[in-house]
Structure prediction request, 149 residues.
Amino acid sequence: MTKNFLALSLAILAIAGCGFEPMRNQGAITIGSITFANEIPDSIQLKLKNLNTDASNKVSLIIKSYELKERKTYGGSALRALEGEIKGEMEINISDGKNNFIRKLVVVKNFSVNELNPMSERETIKKLEQIIQDQLISQIVFEVQFLEM
Prediction:
């Protein structure tokens, strides 16, 4: 009993004493300006406009292109589609005044095509597109944070 009490009190003391606290605002970045190409969907523009903009910050972000490609893998005895792949690509340009970084971000998601309902397959593709867009935005935040370091 005393060993358990001692171990528990040491664990509580270690956690409280080390100042453990989850990091806050990991996705918070401040950008001077954001520019979009004409082909960028409104859903991505709305999500990126939620970033903090500050005119005094010299970091500018230009979203040059966004492309979503779908590819199906065929096989089996009936030679029908077995698996689909959706690939989201985005080209960005990050500038901090003196340096200019061009990055091509890519996210790939696979899905099963053996759905008997084609509407279900379309909904799966729409949901995967939203997930791909969210992951591309997370990669943009990471790249800007990496530049600021």
